[in-house]
Records
---
Amino acid sequence: MSIDISIMLSVISVCVAVVVAVTNIKRSNAHDSHREASDLTTLIVKLENINEGINEIKSDMRNMKSDIQDLRDRLIIAEQSLKSAHHRINAIKSESEN
C-alpha cells in the first residue's frame, strides 16, 4: 500500500484549505459582531440624544403654556380695568354735559 505523493499532497492541501477557511469565517464573524455592536452603540447614543432634545422641547412647551396663561390673566385684568375706566369717563362726560 503505497500512497502516491501527489494524492497525499492533495489531501494535506485540502485539509489546510479547510482549516484556513474555518479560521477566516470565525475571524470574519467576530469582526462583524464587533462592528454590529459598535453600530448599535452609536444608534443608542443618537436615540438618547434625540430623547433628551424631545424632553427639553416638552419642558419649553410647558413653560410657554404657563407664560401664555399668565399673559391671558393679565389681559383679562387689563380689559376689566379698561372697561371700568370707560364707565368712569362716560360718567364724567355725562356730568359735565349737565
---
Amino acid sequence: MGKRKKLAADARKAALKTQYFAKVKDVPSSPRKMRYVVDLVRGMEVNRALGTLKFCAKAASADVEKLLRSAIANWEQKNERKAEEGELYITKIFVDEGPTLKRMRPAPQGRGYRIRKRSNHVTLFVDTKND
C-alpha cells in the first residue's frame, strides 16, 4: 500500500472511532423489503424507534431492532454511561445490497427458471442531537 493510501485509510479509521454505529451483514432478505422498515425509523429518537420496530408487522423489523439495540450499547460502551431518555437519535441508517445466491427451479418442458436469493447489509449510526 502506498503512503497516500495508507494515510487516507488511517484517517478513515480515526473518524470511525469518534462515531457510534453498528452493522449487520448478509441478512437473508431483499434490500427492497429492508428499506421499507429502515425508512420508518430514519431520524427518530431511539426509544421511539424501538417502539415502532417492536409493533411493526414486517419480518425485517426484528433484525433492525436488534441492530439498533447494538448501536445503543456501542454508544454506552464508548461513553461509559447509560443513555438518558430522549438523548440519542438515529443520525444515519442505510441498506446496501449483499451477495445474491443464484438457484435453479424446475420448470415445464425441461426448462429451468432462475431464483435469486438476495441478501443485504444494514449500517446504523446513532448520536446525540446537539452534536
